[in-house]
Amino acid sequence: VQYVESGGGLVQPGGSLRLSCAASGFPFTSAIMTWHRQPPGKAREWVATMFPAGRTFYSDSVKGRFTIERDDDQHTVFLQMDNLVPDDTAVYYCQEANTPTWGQGTQVTVAS
Fold it and tell me: Which of these, 12, 42, 62, 103, is most buried using a 10 Å CB contact count?
């Protein structure tokens, strides 16, 4: 199982970023894909989940601002992040819900 996250960077408050995660090593079309994040000095936390049929769930802190999407043909899951705030600063990771593996993550920094 492997995850390669990308798309992070430095953005001003109110800005947007689109993260990508290329996944391999498991049947992607039936996978429950999730995004998590680890703010500096804090524990990793769940951000969003997308089921194979398209149903989505979000943490209260990102609901209405973030959107999880998937491309089953490309085995890729995305996280569209809008109206970013400094508290969104973290390393972002994707993961299939039933696997213990993590990728290297991608750093998102929200600062003016």
Answer: 62
Query: Which whole-number Å values give the CA distances from 85 to 17, 33, 39, 65, in the listed order?
Result: 12, 24, 13, 10
Tell me which long-range contacts 57-66 makes (C-beta under 8 A, separation of at least 24). 61/87, 62/88, 66/35
Output the tens digit of pLDDT for each of the chain's 112 residues: 999 999 999 999 999 999 999 999 999 999 999 999 999 999 999 999 999 989 999 999 999 999 999 999 999 999 999 999 999 999 999 999 999 999 999 999 999 9
Contacts of residue 94, defined as CB under 8 A and 6 or more positions apart, other chains included, come to: 3, 5, 19, 21, 23, 33, 34, 35, 36, 77, 79, 103
Angle at the Cα of 91 (from 29 to 5), degrees rounded to 5? Answer: 35
Separation of CA 57 from chain center:
12
Measured distance CA(109)–CA(91) in Å, rounded: 9
